[in-house]
Amino acid sequence: MEKYDVVIIGGGPIGLACGIECQQSGLSYVILEKGCLVNSLYNYPTTMTFFSTSERLEIGGVPFVSISAKPTRSEALEYYRRVTQNKMLNVKLFEEVTSVGNNEIEHVTTTNKAVYHSKSIVVATGFYDIPNTLGIEGENLPKVTHYYKDPHFYAFQKVLVVGSNNSSVDVALETWRKGADVTMVIREPEIGKTVKYWVRPDIENRIAEGSIKAYFNSEILKISEKAVFIKTPEGKISIENDWVLAMTGYKPNLPFLEKMGINLSLDQQRKPEYNENTMETNLPNVFIAGVICGGMDTRSLFIENSRVHAELIIKRILEKNGVD
């Protein structure tokens, strides 16, 4: 059994920021991460570029220097690893939290490797672990994936991309440029409005010239080993296919919050209950930080506008401990 002032669940940028705030405030802490360091960022496509500029991704006052104004995935991984190393943060990797309980005195966090006791808990688990599924026949075939790493794998293959937003557009363009025969299936009548302004003309021109085929106002009905069956405004069709990349987005592990006892809103957003000034939930001494605060609205919070959560949380913990 190990005892700390604060247990932080999630070793992403915001979890690390919370650890830094604990360290600077003299609070004992441990950061528990079920995967590798900044696991969500590691699972991003290898060619990914951030929307944010590097200074907006900084934590702990450590400068983030990148070659371009908008840093890449590899630069971010290097930055957060360096921060963790230089700050000597207490991070336990590949240690998944299996349960969180509490009694009148403290919280008990159990992982696949150990048990931790703490006065306070911070949940900063992000949202990249659970994909939004299509819910159709054939989705579990090996040819179907909700994650994408590198375009070379799909060279000279028949690739179908589901979705119309940034990840879908990037996947379609990158695999096409590596020689894939690319088809997009899009529920909406046009490419998503949030697609990066410097990418939109590229995908629209590729579709207009026929280099990338796109079916708008359409949806997949079924996936087989050699084909995909699609419902289009002109009727049902089937196309030969090797791979389906379902870039349909991801969602936070809200059942985990419910299991802890954190209240969620009853609407579609399923937003956790918390005080925006302190980040404390309806459970005393249990806080949330980062994108998970938005529930299903995963587009409202990012690293750059969630970094402040760490400061608010530690300030509240110190206040409750009688420290000014």
Could you describe the 3D structure shown?
The protein is α/β, with parallel strands linked by helices and 324 residues long. It has helices spanning 13-25, 39-42, 73-87, 166-177, 200-208, 254-260, 303-320, and strands spanning 2-9, 29-32, 91-92, 97-102, 107-111, 115-123, 130-131, 144-145, 158-162, 181-185, 213-215, 219-223, 227-232, 235-240, 243-246, 250-251, 286-288. The protein has 2 domains: 2-130 and 250-320, FAD/NAD(P)-binding domain (3-Layer(bba) Sandwich); 133-246, FAD/NAD(P)-binding domain (3-Layer(bba) Sandwich). It is built from 7 helices and 17 strands. Strands 1, 2, 3, 4, 5, 6 and 17 form a 7-stranded mixed beta sheet that branches. Helix 1 (13-25) links the parallel strand 1 (2-9) and strand 2. Helix 1 runs parallel beside helix 7. The radius of gyration is 22 Å and the shape is elongated.
Q: Could you list some keywords that capture this structure?
A:
alpha/beta; five-stranded parallel beta sheet; 324 residues; 2 domains; FAD/NAD(P)-binding domain; single chain; seven-stranded mixed beta sheet
Quick overview:
With 324 residues, this protein is α/β, with parallel strands linked by helices. The chain is built from 7 helices and 17 strands. The chain folds into 2 domains: 2-130 and 250-320, FAD/NAD(P)-binding domain; 133-246, 3-Layer(bba) Sandwich (FAD/NAD(P)-binding domain), CATH 3.50.50.60.
